[in-house]
What we know:
By secondary structure, this protein is an alpha/beta fold. The chain has one domain (6-156): 3-Layer(aba) Sandwich (Molybdenum Cofactor Biosythetic Enzyme, Chain A), CATH 3.40.980. It has six helices and six strands, in the order βααβαβαβαββα. It has helices at residues 14-18, 25-33, 50-62, 83-90, 96-107, 135-156, and strands spanning 6-12, 39-46, 68-72, 93-94, 120-123, 126-131. The chain has a six-stranded mixed β-sheet, sandwiched between helices. Strand 5 and strand 6 (126-131) form a beta hairpin.
Amino acid sequence: MAPSLRVGILTVSDSGSRGDREDTAGPAIAEVLAPLRPEIVEKAIIPDDPDGIAETLRRWATAGRVNLILTTGGTGLGPRDNTPEATRQVIEREVPGMAEVMRQAGLQHTPMAALSRGLVGAVGSTLIVNLPGSERGARENLDAILPVLEHAIALIAGDTEH
């Protein structure tokens, strides 16, 4: 039996953290996850600062309250897009296949998906997934990995019985 989903949703946005822009991607992520009946344990909107992102990811992952962290934002090529670098500081093992599936799904809708640098990786018993900052991109990418999400989390938790 798959472990229950205990989720943290981290929106990375300079303008969102200042209140200058409404976060629509974070709520969309919760909506896409709804059929899996997750418990949303953590939610935050923070600036695109690599140290702050890494600190939040590390704190959430090591507290033992979440087994899935979904970030949205900061995965592009802009000078303030730092989420993949911050995530790389925290994860112990990368899961490139899931990131590839997300980019492939995005490419079905826009060639700009090739510019996404989002990572997926595990730290301890927590899976961290970087999603695009746009609501549409976040939905498409999360939809693409939804079929394997619970199994990935079960494996990370040590449930290797097939």
